[in-house]
Structure formats: structure tokens, C-alpha cells
Design a protein that fits this description.
Helix content of chain A: under 10%
CATH topology of the largest domain in chain B: Immunoglobulin-like
Number of helices of chain A: 3
CATH topology of chain A: Methylamine Dehydrogenase, Chain H
CATH architecture of chain A: 7 Propeller
Strand order of the largest sheet of chain B: 5-6-7-8-9-10-11-12
Number of domains of chain A: 1
Largest sheet of chain A: 6 strands, antiparallel
Shape of chain A: globular
Largest interface: A-B, 27 and 27 residues
Organism (chain A): Marinobacterium halophilum
Helix content of chain B: 10-25%
GO molecular function (chain B): electron transfer activity; heme binding
Protein name (chain A): Quinohemoprotein amine dehydrogenase beta subunit
Oligomer: heterodimer
Keywords (chain A): Signal
Number of strands of chain B: 32
CATH architecture of the largest domain in chain B: Sandwich
Distance between the termini of chain A: 6 Å
Distance between the termini of chain B: 39 Å
Protein name (chain B): Quinohemoprotein amine dehydrogenase
Shape of chain B: globular
Strand content of chain A: over 45%
């Protein structure tokens, strides 16, 4: 792999001469090859080599755009994308752009949407979505109960759910743990056993019992970016009141999070630092998970062990999402528009940029690591 | 399959009947409209009940305004594949709003939405409905509908099917939104806005008078000013009128226009007129005796730019409709115009108000110079037997200026984009302090609309820092605010659009003093969805 890397670096000399930016971004020699994956309008998957920060290949996604949320296969070679107006799942071999999996969740009389809920099991065999079905009668809609749908990835094209289990409404992002559960990000954080459908509360959010001095949290997130730290973060905002009168004027406003360790399925729920500006997505530093980075109109760095914001950088436009290299040195800030802004995680200084052919809008930005 | 066969047969028959009706210009009968429903809607809707009184699923369980039914037909056309000829669409809006409309009392509290007068903050909305419904819609939007509880529930389900992320919005994801909306909210709406009401039963049985005749009209057009006119409505067929309008603006400029009007539900007047080359719309409601019309007239291309309009029918009786302006400063001589019809006899402007000189006098319009003395208060001007009950306000000092609308939204646009700018039109209303000498209290005397000079300033420190007053737009001498161009502006922080938060200031001269009033303007982004009713 090291040799391989050297060759790649040699090939880069030309572009390096054009700008020192890339040398600063190119990670130190690593055993694994990382690719940054994202989706842009009109409907393309981009596979970006994180050594060179160049688009290695662009794959056309069938159907319409949306939402572009992804789940990467544990071996890093395949990615599953929620597309076609939040209805279909497409699987791609990122090395070839081959479409290897397709599940159309809707039928002419049943509209099925998944709100960002897409996950691949830790063993790489199963794929999960939360389906929100609506029956289309001739003159009315009928709202049906949501369900966890389990697909066999090996079923490939035309895959149908092999099992379904009822789940709560309002579930957004989900993730599979190494303990064999699927974490369901809804009003409260729950986990479901995808073999039996048995659920348990991981931690309560909307229904937490912290008394009248804590505002029930607004817990909502569009993207799951914890794969570099093997974790799942559901951020929330809340207010701590000075007394029982719920006075918003004197309240302390806090960011908090429920964070699940995907190895153990254990959760921590805590306030992490004062709410001073909007953050759309968080990612933690793989070297020290007390360090969090956030993006929206700002790029920010936080030490949650001290409940402190360490640095804030104004951004030239809104970036919905953020991810980080496996070595923790480089931040990729993207989503919304058509450029990915690359930053040094130490200083938050901008060290590069990747221009894409269309807007990322709501799409994810995930890292696929192909091991040596 | 049987249904499809029936449909195709009916379609052929239906088209024939309609074409004949159009050629002969015959009034539309209920059977014709029902036939259109049977021909065009039964691919999806079902019919039950007897042939004399058929009940159509999802249709017969609702009552709406003409605009409400138009929206429904638009939605069916755009989203559900309905195909309707223009004449069929007109016929259905007429039929549905005549037979499943709102009674005058039911529509009255929410007429502002029908009149497209949407620069206002609604008040008095039930908090649960505000959180569930009017976090996105105006409260008037759903308050102008009547449905069975089951129909309200189907409407909730429609939202979930058509806009699936509804339950994930802020103020939805923090609660069991679908459960609340489909049970508690649907029940609440079914109670407050039920299908069957005494008001509607009464109105259906009431004798409706047509609106043919001559109407004495007063109103206001932004950029032009107050006007008075005669409007003539000539009935061409049931519910349809040819309309002409002729009169003067307050500055003496002549006004002339013509167009067509349709009356729905027996009292909802909707007219399209071209006035001095500009296309305008009138949305008015007739009172139950059909002697008065009240509403708003606005630019067809820009519904935000408009003003009040009202009419009094010519019944061969004296009527004093308005005094323009509606105020007179004590001790000063000023010109007043008395507007009405059959204005014969002595002019009496009320206690202490002296007519110094009559400049012109006709039976429908008297211009004079008057001077007031005596205490502040409303006088009741009279000409012969006719009295203006709105009154003439005699005042000593202008104490307060109210800017209307107090809260407005405009939208950036133009600059090659798909959406035009959405402007806003302002007026200033003057008040004297009243008996307690304190402005802003209940006894303030409303003097009426006053001429003002207009300016803008940033709404607060943040807006000042962002230089909103430089980028977000400008206001002209007539009080019309024009927002900035659409699109990212590299000069602004984060290349923000020319959005902003402004304070609109009206300065009114009162003798040697100047009195200011302020309104709030939010210059927002384009709204790419154009709704018939917001």
C-alpha cells in the first residue's frame, strides 16, 4: 500500500506544483485508502480520492434526486444511497460505478418514504430502512404505520424486504451497531433487534424526565457522520430554566447529544456546550472523541469535556454537513451548495476545496475506507 | 371496468351538452355541473345517494369559497390528472361555491384572505390550531372551509401523503404530530368549522337579489390616491355582469375602466377590470339586501398592491357616501369633497364646521372649503336628508401616526429570475390624542388616511450592521415599497440575497409640526409557490 501511495504521489507532482494546498491535505502514509462520497444534482454519486482530493469517478444514479443519504458497506467497496425522492435504495460498487442493488420501496398504490433512515449491518449482509407508507386510495390517502424493513444485500437488483417490524413515527437517521441492533433516531432514541423486532429505549429525549427546569429537547438530525469514530450522534438543543416558570429570557441554552458507541451499543446523553449558533451536523475527532466539529453557517470546534467552544470560523455560505479524515487531521465541510471546503482540524484554516458539478443539497458526505 | 365504460359514454354526452350551453349562452343548470362532475371526476371519486341528490365522495362533504374551490380544481389538475376545459372549470367553481359555499357570516371574519390583503398578523387563533395549521398557512385558509370531521381527518392524511415530511417540521417533530392532527385537530376543526350550519341553511334559503344597476363607488389605488366613481353593472346572464367604472381621483384626474364581474354564492363579487390601461381585480361582498358592496381592489399582476373599495347601490335615494379627506383641523380652512348620490338640499357639516365657499356642486359630488371651530370630535355631515355616518373628524392637533400595514412582507425578485418582486403599499392614518390628551389610548380620535412622506431605516442594530437599508429596497413618495433584486449579492455577508429587516417611517405634517409613525417591513426571499389563497 505504501508503494501504491508513492506512485500516486508521484503522479501528483504536476498538480502539486500548481498549489501547495494539496500537499497539506494529503494525509500521511496510511494503510487504508479513503474515499469521500457525496451526491449532487441532477443525480450523481461522486467518489473523491481523499489523498488527492480529486474526483476519482462520477456515477449516474437512476431515478430522481433526493435525499442522497448514504450508508457505506463495512468493507468500503460499496455504498447504498437513498434516492428517487426518498423512496428507492441504490447500491453502487464505488470502484466501478456498477449498480449492484436496487430496492424500489413504493408501488403505484403505496407511497413509501424513508426520512434519511438507511443503514447497513455490521456484518455487511443486511440493509435497513424505516419505511413510512401511505396507501393511495382512489380519492384519499391512508396513513399507515411505519416499519423497519430488512433487506438482504445479496438479493441485489429488485430486492424486497425479507422482514418488517413496526416502529414509531418520526424516525430519521438510523445506524446498525456491532451488537446487532439498529438504533432508531426518533422522538426518543430506541434500538430494535432486526431479527425479532424487539425494541428497547436507548435513551429518552422528547420524553426525558428531567423536571420543569429543562426544556424537552429538539432532537433532529439529517446526517449520520459518525463512521470515522464508530459512533452515532443525535444532537439536540435544550434550555435550562432558572426556576419552574419556564422563562425563556433568563434560560441557559445548550447543545446536547445522545451518542451511541457502535461497538458496544452504549449511550451517553449530555449537554455538550452552550448554544450560541446553529450547527446542522457534528462529527467527532477519531483521535479524541471529546473534540467535536460542527458545520452550518460556521465551522466550529468544541471540547465537550470542558463544555467549551474552542474556535469558530465564519463560512462563505451554508454547509449542511461535515466529515473528517481517518487520521483526524482534515475536515471536509460540504452539503447545500456545490463545493466541499477542506480545513485543517487543528486551526480550522481552509486548505483546499473541491468543486463539484452540481449542488449537494441534502446529500450526505460519507467516507468509504477500502482496507489494504 | 364498468365504471370506465360509463365514463366514456358520459363524457361524449357531457361535452355535447356543454357546447350547446356555451353557444346558446344559456344559464348553467345544476344538472350540467353535476354532469361535469360525473364525467370528469368519477375516475377517482365515487357517487352515492339517489339520482336527484347525488353525493360525491370527498366533494359533497366540504364547503368552500370560490377561491377555495378554484384551488381544489387546480390541485386536481396539476397533481391528479384532472382534465377540464376552461368553461367546465368556470362552471364547477360557480356550481360548487353556489351549492357548497360559505354563508356571508361564515366568511366575514376572514375576508382579508379572499381580498388578498395578506400583510397582517392574524390574532385570536386557537393556540392548538395555530401550532398545527397556521404555522404554515394563514388561519383564514382553513377557517374559510367547512367539512365533516371525517373530511378534516382526510385533509390531515392528505398532508401526510402529499407533504410527507410535515411531521418532521419544527413544531411537529416535538410531538406526536400525526396522532394529534388526525384526532384532536380534526375534531376541533369539525366542531369549529362543520359542514352543516344554521348560517348556511339560512343563506341557502334566503332570497338573493342580483347586483345589476348603478353603484356609487369610493376607494383607494396605491400610487393614484383616493377616488370616487360610478360603477354600472349590466347583467349578461345569471351571475355575470358587464361592468364600467368612471370617476375621479382626489387630485382631479379622471378614472375610467371596464370589465366583467361574476357573482358567486349570491354575494361574492369578483370583477376583472381594465382601468386606464391597468388590469385590476375587485373582490367584494354584497350585504344581504344587496345594497352595499365592500372589499378590495388590487392590481391583477400584483395582488399586494391595492386598496379598499366600496359601493352603494343607486336606489333613487339620497346618500352621502364619503367625505374626502375625512378630517378637518380646527381653525384652518381646507378643501373637502362630499361624495354621494342625489345630494340635494342644505349642506350641514356638523357643529362648529362652517362652509366658507362651495367650489363645485353636483348631485353626486360637492367640493367646498370648510373651516372648523369648537371641540375635537366626530361630526356627522349631512346634505339634505343624507348623512355620512362615518363622519368628519374635527381635531386640534395630530398626535399619532399609524402606518398600515403595521407588519408587511415584501419579496426580492426580478434580476432575470423567475419570480417578480413582491412590493408593498403603505398608508398613514392620523389620530388625535382624544379627551385624555394621551396618544395611544382607547379614546384617540381616528382622523383617517393622511398624506405622508415616506422613508426607510434599518430595523435594529443587526440590520444596520448588514446595511439592510442600502440593499433591501426603497420606498417612493406614494408609500410603495420596492424590494431589491433577487440572487446572491457578493457585496453582502455570505453573499446573502438582498433580504433585510426595515422600519418604514411615515412623516405627516400637521401645521408646523411633523409627526412620525413606523411600520415593520421584512424583505424576504421569493415564494416560488403561488397559491390562490395563502
Amino acid at each position: 500500500m505504501k508503494l501504491n501511495k508513492l506512485f500516486k504521489s508521484a503522479g501528483l507532482v504536476g498538480s502539486l506544483a500548481l498549489g501547495s494546498v494539496l500537499s497539506a491535505v494529503a494525509p500521511a502514509a496510511m494503510a487504508d485508502q479513503e474515499y469521500l462520497l457525496t451526491v449532487t444534482r441532477p443525480n450523481q454519486l461522486h467518489v473523491i480520492d481523499m489523498e488527492t482530493n480529486k474526483v476519482a469517478r462520477t456515477c449516474d444514479i437512476p431515478g430522481d434526486f433526493g435525499s442522497g443519504i448514504m450508508s457505506v458497506h463495512p468493507d468500503g467497496t460499496h455504498v447504498f444511497i437513498l434516492g428517487h425522492n426518498w423512496e428507492d435504495v441504490y447500491g453502487f460498487d464505488i470502484r466501478t460505478c456498477e449498480v449492484t442493488f436496487h430496492a424500489a420501496q413504493s408501488t403505484p398504490t403505496l407511497q413509501v418514504k424513508s426520512y434519511q433512515s438507511l443503514a447497513v449491518s455490521a456484518d455487511g449482509k443486511e440493509l435497513y430502512t424505516v419505511q413510512n407508507p401511505t396507501r393511495k386510495h382512489r380519492d384519499r390517502f391512508e396513513v399507515l404505520e411505519p416499519r423497519l424493513a430488512v433487506f438482504n444485500i445479496a438479493d441485489g437488483m429488485g430486492a424486497e424486504p425479507v422482514r418488517t417490524f413496526p416502529v414509531d413515527r418520526r424516525i430519521t437517521k438510523i445506524v446498525a451497531t456491532e451488537t446487532g441492533e439498529v438504533v432508531l433516531g426518533g422522538a426518543d432514541l430506541k434500538a430494535i433487534n432486526p431479527q425479532t423486532g424487539e425494541t428497547r429505549i436507548v435513551t429518552k429525549l422528547a420524553n426525558w424526565e428531567r423536571g420543569p427546569q429543562w426544556l424537552p429537547p429538539d432532537a433532529f438530525a439529517m446526517h449520520s457522520q459518525g463512521n470515522q469514530s464508530n459512533e452515532y450522534i443525535m444532537p439536540y438543543s435544550t434550555a435550562k430554566f432558572t426556576d419552574d416558570t419556564m422563562n425563556f429570557e433568563t434560560a441557559e441554552w445548550w447543545w446536547g447529544m445522545a451518542r451511541v458507541d457502535l461497538e458496544t451499543g452504549k449511550v451517553e446523553r449530555r449537554e455538550i456546550f452552550p448554544f450560541e449558533f446553529i450547527i446542522f451536523n457534528f462529527v467527532s475527532d477519531p483521535r479524541n472523541n471529546d473534540i467535536l466539529y460542527g458545520s452550518f453557517n460556521t465551522l466550529s470546534k468544541h471540547d465537550i469535556s470542558q463544555q467549551k467552544t474552542l474556535a469558530v470560523k465564519e463560512m462563505p455560505h451554508t454547509y449542511y454537513t461535515i466529515n473528517i479524515s481517518g487520521d483526524g487531521e482534515t475536515l471536509y465541510v460540504g452539503g447545500t451548495s456545490s463545493d466541499i471546503s477542506i480545513h485543517d482540524s487543528e486551526t480550522l484554516d481552509k486548505i483546499g476545496s473541491i468543486q463539484l458539478t452540481g449542488d449537494m443539497s441534502t446529500a450526505d458526505m460519507r467516507v468509504a475506507t477500502i482496507k489494504d | 371496468m364498468a365504471l370506465s365504460n360509463n365514463n366514456s359514454k358520459r363524457a361524449v354526452l357531457g361535452t355535447g351538452v356543454l357546447a350547446l350551453a356555451g353557444l346558446a349562452s344559456m344559464p348553467l343548470h345544476a344538472q350540467d355541473a353535476e354532469q361535469i362532475i360525473k364525467d370528469r371526476c368519477l375516475a377517482c371519486h365515487t357517487v352515492s345517494g339517489d339520482a336527484e341528490a347525488p353525493s360525491f365522495s370527498r366533494i359533497s362533504q366540504q364547503r368552500k369559497t370560490p377561491e377555495g374551490w378554484l384551488m381544489t380544481l387546480n390541485r386536481m389538475t396539476h397533481l391528479r390528472g384532472l382534465e377540464l376545459a376552461a368553461g367546465e372549470k368556470r362552471a364547477l367553481v360557480q356550481y360548487l361555491s353556489d351549492t357548497q359555499g360559505l354563508a356571508p357570516e361564515e366568511a366575514a371574519p376572514y375576508r382579508y384572505l379572499l381580498e388578498q390583503d395578506t400583510n397582517r398578523v392574524e390574532s385570536g387563533i386557537e393556540p392548538a390550531l395555530a401550532e398545527t395549521c397556521s404555522r404554515c398557512h394563514s388561519a383564514a385558509r382553513f377557517s374559510l372551509q367547512r367539512r365533516t370531521e371525517q373530511e378534516w381527518k382526510y385533509l390531515v392524511d392528505f398532508h401526510m401523503g402529499q407533504f410527507p415530511t410535515t411531521e418532521l417540521h419544527s413544531l411537529a417533530r416535538d410531538r406526536e404530530w400525526y396522532k394529534i392532527a388526525s384526532t384532536e385537530t380534526a375534531a376541533e376543526l369539525g366542531q369549529r368549522f362543520p359542514l352543516i350550519t344554521q348560517e348556511w341553511n339560512n343563506w341557502q334559503q334566503a332570497v338573493k337579489t342580483d347586483l345589476m344597476g348603478r353603484w356609487r363607488i369610493t376607494g383607494f389605488v396605491p400610487g393614484k390616491g383616493e377616488f370616487d366613481a360610478w360603477m354600472s353593472a349590466v347583467k349578461t346572464s345569471d351571475n355575470h355582469y358587464d361592468v364600467t367604472l368612471d370617476g375621479h381621483y382626489a387630485d382631479g384626474t379622471l378614472l375610467s375602466g371596464a370589465g366583467k364581474a361574476t357573482v358567486y354564492t349570491g354575494y361574492e363579487w369578483r370583477a376583472s377590470l381594465t382601468i386606464d390601461g391597468v388590469k385590476m381585480r375587485q373582490v367584494m361582498a354584497a350585504d344581504k339586501k344587496a345594497n352595499r358592496l365592500e372589499g378590495r381592489m388590487f392590481l391583477a399582476a400584483e395582488r399586494e398592491i391595492g386598496g379598499e373599495v366600496s359601493g352603494v347601490r343607486d336606489q333613487n335615494m339620497a346618500a352621502l357616501v364619503a367625505v374626502q379627506p375625512s378630517y378637518l383641523r380646527a381653525g384652518e380652512s381646507a378643501e373637502l369633497t362630499l361624495i354621494g348620490q342625489y345630494l340635494k338640499g342644505d349642506i350641514d357639516l356638523g357643529e362648529g364646521v362652517v362652509v366658507e365657499k362651495i367650489l363645485s356642486r353636483a348631485d353626486d359630488r360637492i367640493t367646498l372649503i370648510a373651516k372648523a371651530t369648537g371641540s375635537e370630535g366626530l361630526r356627522t355631515p349631512r346634505v339634505g336628508t343624507a348623512a355620512d355616518n362615518a363622519g368628519l373628524a374635527v381635531y386640534s392637533e395630530l398626535a399619532r401616526v399609524e402606518v398600515l400595514p403595521a407588519n408587511a412582507v415584501s419579496r426580492i425578485g426580478g434580476a432575470g429570475g423567475k419570480m417578480e418582486k413582491v412590493r408593498a403599499a403603505y398608508r398613514a392614518v392620523g389620530y388625535s390624542a382624544g379627551a385624555d390628551g394621551k396618544p395611544g389610548t382607547d379614546d384617540d380620535l381616528r382622523l383617517g388616511y393622511m398624506p405622508a412622506s415616506w422613508s426607510i431605516k434599518p430595523a435594529d442594530e443587526v440590520a444596520a450592521h448588514d446595511k439592510d437599508e442600502q440593499y433591501a429596497g426603497s420606498i417612493n413618495a406614494a408609500g410603495i415599497f420596492t424590494p431589491g433584486d433577487a440572487g446572491p449579492n457578493p457585496e453582502r455577508k455570505m453573499s446573502a440575497n438582498n433580504v433585510g429587516r426595515l422600519t418604514v417611517v411615515a412623516t405627516v405634517a400637521d401645521s408646523s409640526a411633523k409627526v412620525e409613525g413606523e411600520g415593520s417591513m421584512l424583505v424576504s426571499v421569493p415564494d416560488f409557490v403561488r397559491r390562490v389563497l395563502d
